[in-house]
Structure formats: structure tokens, C-alpha cells
Task: structure prediction
Amino acid sequence: MNNGKKRVLFSAEEINIRNEELGKEISKDYQGKKLVVISLLRGSFIFAADVVREITIPVEIDFMTTSSYGNEEQSSGIVEIVTDIRSDLEGKEVLIVDDIMDSGYTMEQVIKHIKGKNPNSVKTCVLLDKASRRKVDLKPDYTGFSIPDVFIVGYGLNYGDYCRNVPYIYTYDD
Result:
């Protein structure tokens, strides 16, 4: 683990409030539509679960596992779909949920893959947007928080194989 001083960026309370806001916004935008939420595992599972519980309309939930980081702090740029979804997306609205968008490589590849399944629309929702690291022309449709270029941990985001269970988001100051 890092030997720097831990600094909380977003408390559990701040995250909960933002999830409520996102749930209301998503519910309003998709009212009367067939919505499928696709959570990108493993990083987004906590965020996706919390946001989905705030959505007040019927929603189908599915999961996709991708890999581009391994145990590194930066994306390799090569995105692998480890486990695909099981849902039929034909004629449905799709909301892809991820923990963080930085380079954008993963989301770009997932969107391309999902569009090949003929949904009506594909939008994105991320807990954290690290736009300063973007390598592709892509902006999330729904964003929890925008962050600077720092390594973050907690609330689903891992440090190696650990820290996903921490209920807040933090970084380390040297």
C-alpha cells in the first residue's frame, strides 16, 4: 500500500447525495422507455448498485467485464471484453455505468460493442470523470464527480486487489 498521507476526496455522504441526484435525473430522462443498465465490472459494481436503487422506473440490469488496467494505475489502451452481457438490447435504451472515465479507451470500445447489438440508444454514466487524461473524443452523459489527474481508491475503485469496499473515495498525498 502507498506510504503517503490519505486524503478523502468524496465522503460517503457526498457520494450518496450525488447518487440520489443521478437516479432522479436518469429516471426522468428514461420515463416510459425500456432501460437496460450495463455495469462494467468490477470497478462499477458498488456505484451501479447504488445508482440503480435510486432509479424509480423499471430497469433491466446486466453486467460486462472488461480489462485494460490489470494491476496498473494507467490503462494499457488495449480493451478486452472478458464477459459479455446476456440481455437482448434490440430496441431498448442502454445506459453503460462505469466507475471512472479517464483515457476513454474502455468506454469507447464498449459503446462500439453495444451498438452492434442494435439498441435504440447508448448513453454513459460514470462516477468519476478524469477529463484531463482523455485520449478519445468522448464525454460521459451522466457524471458523478469530475476529478483532477490523481490516483483514486475506494467505493469500488481498487488498489491492486484491495480497497473496493471502502465507502468513500480517497487519494494519497506524498
In short: Residues 5-173 form a domain with the Rossmann fold fold (CATH 3.40.50.2020). The beta strands are 5-10, 35-41, 59-67, 80-83, 93-101, 121-129, 142-146, 169-173.
